[in-house]
Protein backbone atom coordinates (compact mmCIF):
# COMPACT_ATOMS: atom_id res chain seq x y z
CA UNK A 1 0.00 0.00 0.00
CA UNK A 2 2.80 2.41 0.95
CA UNK A 3 4.70 1.45 -2.21
CA UNK A 4 1.59 2.22 -4.34
CA UNK A 5 1.11 5.66 -2.72
CA UNK A 6 4.76 6.52 -3.32
CA UNK A 7 4.42 5.49 -6.96
CA UNK A 8 1.33 7.69 -7.38
CA UNK A 9 3.07 10.61 -5.69
CA UNK A 10 6.09 10.32 -7.98
CA UNK A 11 3.80 10.09 -11.02
CA UNK A 12 1.89 13.26 -10.04
CA UNK A 13 5.14 15.13 -9.45
CA UNK A 14 6.46 14.10 -12.87
CA UNK A 15 3.22 15.17 -14.59
CA UNK A 16 3.32 18.58 -12.87
CA UNK A 17 6.95 19.07 -13.90
CA UNK A 18 6.12 18.12 -17.50
CA UNK A 19 3.23 20.63 -17.55
CA UNK A 20 5.48 23.40 -16.23
CA UNK A 21 8.10 22.72 -18.89
CA UNK A 22 5.45 22.61 -21.64
CA UNK A 23 3.94 25.94 -20.54
CA UNK A 24 7.36 27.53 -20.53
CA UNK A 25 7.64 26.85 -24.25
CA UNK A 26 4.28 28.44 -25.12
CA UNK A 27 4.59 31.88 -26.82
CA UNK A 28 3.40 34.85 -24.79
CA UNK A 29 0.31 36.66 -26.09
CA UNK A 30 1.11 40.39 -26.30
CA UNK A 31 -1.44 42.84 -24.91
CA UNK A 32 0.60 46.04 -24.76
CA UNK A 33 2.53 47.76 -27.53
CA UNK A 34 5.67 47.83 -25.39
CA UNK A 35 5.63 44.02 -25.46
CA UNK A 36 5.75 43.68 -29.22
CA UNK A 37 8.62 44.08 -31.63
CA UNK A 38 8.38 41.18 -34.04
CA UNK A 39 6.50 41.06 -37.31
CA UNK A 40 3.22 39.16 -37.33
CA UNK A 41 2.36 39.46 -33.63
CA UNK A 42 -0.87 41.32 -32.88
CA UNK A 43 -1.01 43.98 -30.17
CA UNK A 44 -4.20 45.22 -28.53
CA UNK A 45 -4.13 49.02 -28.29
CA UNK A 46 -7.30 49.39 -26.22
CA UNK A 47 -8.00 47.07 -23.29
CA UNK A 48 -11.74 47.80 -23.21
CA UNK A 49 -11.62 49.04 -19.62
CA UNK A 50 -9.42 52.13 -19.47
CA UNK A 51 -7.46 54.68 -21.48
CA UNK A 52 -4.14 53.24 -20.34
CA UNK A 53 -1.54 54.07 -22.97
CA UNK A 54 -3.60 56.92 -24.42
CA UNK A 55 -3.34 60.67 -23.80
CA UNK A 56 -5.95 63.32 -24.57
CA UNK A 57 -8.36 65.86 -23.11
CA UNK A 58 -10.00 64.00 -20.24
CA UNK A 59 -13.13 66.15 -20.56
CA UNK A 60 -13.71 64.85 -24.07
CA UNK A 61 -12.71 61.17 -23.97
CA UNK A 62 -14.18 58.42 -21.80
CA UNK A 63 -14.57 54.64 -21.71
CA UNK A 64 -18.16 53.39 -21.78
CA UNK A 65 -19.35 49.80 -22.25
CA UNK A 66 -15.99 48.65 -23.60
CA UNK A 67 -15.76 51.56 -26.04
CA UNK A 68 -13.61 54.67 -26.36
CA UNK A 69 -16.11 57.53 -26.62
CA UNK A 70 -15.22 61.00 -27.88
CA UNK A 71 -17.84 63.65 -27.26
CA UNK A 72 -18.08 67.44 -27.67
CA UNK A 73 -20.94 69.79 -26.81
CA UNK A 74 -22.22 73.11 -28.08
CA UNK A 75 -22.05 74.84 -24.69
CA UNK A 76 -18.26 74.47 -24.56
CA UNK A 77 -17.09 73.88 -28.15
CA UNK A 78 -13.50 72.98 -28.99
CA UNK A 79 -11.53 75.64 -30.89
CA UNK A 80 -9.56 73.23 -33.06
CA UNK A 81 -9.39 69.56 -33.87
CA UNK A 82 -8.11 67.53 -30.94
CA UNK A 83 -6.98 63.92 -30.63
CA UNK A 84 -6.68 60.97 -28.30
CA UNK A 85 -3.11 59.82 -28.91
CA UNK A 86 -1.72 56.35 -28.36
CA UNK A 87 1.52 57.02 -26.51
CA UNK A 88 2.75 53.47 -26.00
CA UNK A 89 4.73 53.24 -29.22
CA UNK A 90 5.12 54.57 -32.76
CA UNK A 91 4.48 52.27 -35.70
CA UNK A 92 5.73 52.07 -39.29
CA UNK A 93 4.51 49.10 -41.36
CA UNK A 94 1.32 47.56 -40.02
CA UNK A 95 -2.26 46.45 -40.40
CA UNK A 96 -4.52 48.36 -38.00
CA UNK A 97 -8.06 47.12 -37.37
CA UNK A 98 -10.85 48.66 -35.33
CA UNK A 99 -14.58 49.20 -35.20
CA UNK A 100 -16.18 52.65 -35.21
CA UNK A 101 -19.63 54.17 -34.82
CA UNK A 102 -20.10 57.87 -35.53
CA UNK A 103 -23.31 59.45 -34.28
CA UNK A 104 -22.69 63.00 -35.50
CA UNK A 105 -19.91 65.21 -36.84
CA UNK A 106 -16.52 64.31 -38.29
CA UNK A 107 -13.72 62.12 -37.01
CA UNK A 108 -10.86 59.97 -38.22
CA UNK A 109 -8.01 57.64 -37.35
CA UNK A 110 -4.54 59.14 -37.53
CA UNK A 111 -1.53 56.97 -38.33
CA UNK A 112 2.16 57.61 -38.96
CA UNK A 113 1.38 60.99 -37.43
CA UNK A 114 3.33 63.53 -35.37
CA UNK A 115 2.20 65.06 -32.06
CA UNK A 116 2.82 68.78 -32.66
CA UNK A 117 1.07 70.24 -29.58
CA UNK A 118 1.29 68.14 -26.42
CA UNK A 119 -0.89 70.52 -24.38
CA UNK A 120 -3.83 70.60 -26.78
CA UNK A 121 -3.25 67.11 -28.20
CA UNK A 122 -2.87 68.19 -31.82
CA UNK A 123 -1.35 65.86 -34.39
CA UNK A 124 -0.47 66.04 -38.07
CA UNK A 125 -0.25 63.24 -40.58
CA UNK A 126 -2.17 60.57 -42.47
CA UNK A 127 -5.82 60.19 -41.55
CA UNK A 128 -8.39 57.54 -42.39
CA UNK A 129 -11.44 59.80 -42.48
CA UNK A 130 -14.83 59.16 -40.85
CA UNK A 131 -17.91 61.40 -41.01
CA UNK A 132 -21.60 61.10 -40.17
CA UNK A 133 -22.68 62.70 -43.45
CA UNK A 134 -20.78 59.88 -45.20
CA UNK A 135 -19.14 62.32 -47.61
CA UNK A 136 -15.53 61.77 -46.60
CA UNK A 137 -15.62 58.39 -44.84
CA UNK A 138 -12.87 56.16 -46.19
CA UNK A 139 -10.78 58.85 -47.88
CA UNK A 140 -7.09 59.41 -47.15
CA UNK A 141 -6.58 62.88 -45.74
CA UNK A 142 -3.33 64.35 -44.42
CA UNK A 143 -4.18 66.41 -41.35
CA UNK A 144 -2.30 69.69 -41.06
CA UNK A 145 -0.29 69.13 -44.24
CA UNK A 146 -1.30 68.29 -47.82
CA UNK A 147 -5.04 67.81 -47.29
CA UNK A 148 -6.94 65.21 -49.32
CA UNK A 149 -4.56 62.71 -50.88
CA UNK A 150 -7.18 60.28 -52.22
CA UNK A 151 -10.95 60.60 -52.34
CA UNK A 152 -13.22 57.60 -51.91
CA UNK A 153 -12.87 55.32 -54.90
CA UNK A 154 -9.47 56.70 -55.96
CA UNK A 155 -6.07 55.06 -56.37
CA UNK A 156 -3.45 57.85 -56.30
CA UNK A 157 0.27 57.78 -57.01
CA UNK A 158 2.21 60.83 -55.79
CA UNK A 159 5.63 61.47 -57.33
CA UNK A 160 8.65 63.04 -55.69
CA UNK A 161 7.54 66.53 -56.74
CA UNK A 162 4.08 66.09 -55.24
CA UNK A 163 2.31 65.60 -58.56
CA UNK A 164 -0.61 63.16 -58.48
CA UNK A 165 -1.65 60.47 -60.92
CA UNK A 166 -5.23 59.48 -60.08
CA UNK A 167 -7.08 56.40 -61.27
CA UNK A 168 -10.68 55.53 -60.49
CA UNK A 169 -11.09 52.12 -58.84
CA UNK A 170 -14.73 52.45 -57.78
CA UNK A 171 -17.75 54.73 -57.57
CA UNK A 172 -17.66 56.99 -54.50
CA UNK A 173 -21.42 56.83 -53.97
CA UNK A 174 -21.60 53.09 -54.37
CA UNK A 175 -18.71 52.61 -51.95
CA UNK A 176 -20.45 54.97 -49.53
CA UNK A 177 -23.52 52.76 -49.57
CA UNK A 178 -21.43 50.09 -47.85
CA UNK A 179 -20.65 52.43 -44.93
CA UNK A 180 -23.29 52.84 -42.23
CA UNK A 181 -23.28 56.04 -40.11
CA UNK A 182 -24.82 55.52 -36.70
CA UNK A 183 -23.94 51.82 -36.81
CA UNK A 184 -20.79 49.82 -36.14
CA UNK A 185 -18.39 49.56 -39.08
CA UNK A 186 -15.05 47.80 -39.49
CA UNK A 187 -12.03 49.88 -40.50
CA UNK A 188 -8.79 48.27 -41.67
CA UNK A 189 -5.74 50.40 -42.49
CA UNK A 190 -2.71 48.87 -44.18
CA UNK A 191 0.55 50.85 -44.28
CA UNK A 192 3.49 49.16 -45.98
CA UNK A 193 6.48 51.30 -47.04
CA UNK A 194 4.89 54.10 -49.12
CA UNK A 195 1.77 52.05 -49.96
CA UNK A 196 -1.33 53.02 -47.95
CA UNK A 197 -4.76 51.35 -48.13
CA UNK A 198 -8.10 51.97 -46.39
CA UNK A 199 -10.79 49.30 -46.11
CA UNK A 200 -14.23 49.82 -44.57
CA UNK A 201 -16.30 46.70 -44.00
CA UNK A 202 -13.61 44.85 -46.00
CA UNK A 203 -14.05 46.99 -49.11
CA UNK A 204 -11.11 49.05 -50.40
CA UNK A 205 -12.16 52.71 -50.30
CA UNK A 206 -8.89 54.57 -51.02
CA UNK A 207 -5.30 53.76 -51.93
CA UNK A 208 -2.15 55.90 -52.14
CA UNK A 209 1.43 55.27 -53.18
CA UNK A 210 3.19 58.24 -51.62
CA UNK A 211 6.46 58.85 -53.44
CA UNK A 212 6.99 62.40 -52.18
CA UNK A 213 10.04 61.46 -50.15
CA UNK A 214 10.53 64.78 -48.35
CA UNK A 215 6.98 64.60 -46.93
CA UNK A 216 5.84 60.98 -46.80
CA UNK A 217 5.94 59.67 -43.23
CA UNK A 218 7.51 56.28 -42.60
CA UNK A 219 6.30 55.91 -39.00
CA UNK A 220 4.47 57.80 -36.27
CA UNK A 221 1.69 57.72 -33.70
CA UNK A 222 -1.84 56.35 -33.85
CA UNK A 223 -4.58 58.79 -32.77
CA UNK A 224 -8.35 59.29 -32.82
CA UNK A 225 -9.93 62.59 -33.84
CA UNK A 226 -12.63 64.90 -32.51
CA UNK A 227 -13.37 67.60 -35.10
CA UNK A 228 -14.17 71.20 -34.20
CA UNK A 229 -17.67 72.42 -35.04
CA UNK A 230 -21.14 71.33 -33.89
CA UNK A 231 -21.48 68.84 -31.05
CA UNK A 232 -20.47 65.33 -32.03
CA UNK A 233 -20.05 61.80 -30.69
CA UNK A 234 -17.86 59.01 -32.01
CA UNK A 235 -17.15 55.54 -30.61
CA UNK A 236 -14.27 53.10 -31.14
CA UNK A 237 -13.60 49.55 -29.98
CA UNK A 238 -11.65 46.36 -30.81
CA UNK A 239 -8.50 48.33 -31.70
CA UNK A 240 -5.54 46.12 -32.58
CA UNK A 241 -2.43 46.35 -34.73
CA UNK A 242 -0.24 43.76 -36.46
CA UNK A 243 3.23 44.82 -37.62
CA UNK A 244 4.12 43.71 -41.16
CA UNK A 245 7.27 43.82 -43.26
TrEMBL record:
InterPro entries: AL/BT2_dom (IPR010496). It comes from Rubripirellula amarantea. Keywords: Signal. This is 3-keto-alpha-glucoside-1,2-lyase/3-keto-2-hydroxy-glucal hydratase domain-containing protein. Residues 43-242 form the 3-keto-alpha-glucoside-1,2-lyase/3-keto-2-hydroxy-glucal hydratase domain. GO terms for molecular function: hydrolase activity. Residues 1-33 form the signal peptide. It comes from the Bacteria. Pfam families: 3keto-disac_hyd.
Amino acid sequence: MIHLLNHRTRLLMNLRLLAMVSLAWLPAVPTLADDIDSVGETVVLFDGDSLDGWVGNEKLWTVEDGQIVGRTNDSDPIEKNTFLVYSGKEFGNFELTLRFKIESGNSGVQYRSTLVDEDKFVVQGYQADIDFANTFAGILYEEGRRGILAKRGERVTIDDDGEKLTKRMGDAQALGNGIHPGQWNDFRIVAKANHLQHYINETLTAEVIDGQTDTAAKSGVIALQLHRGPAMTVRFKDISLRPIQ
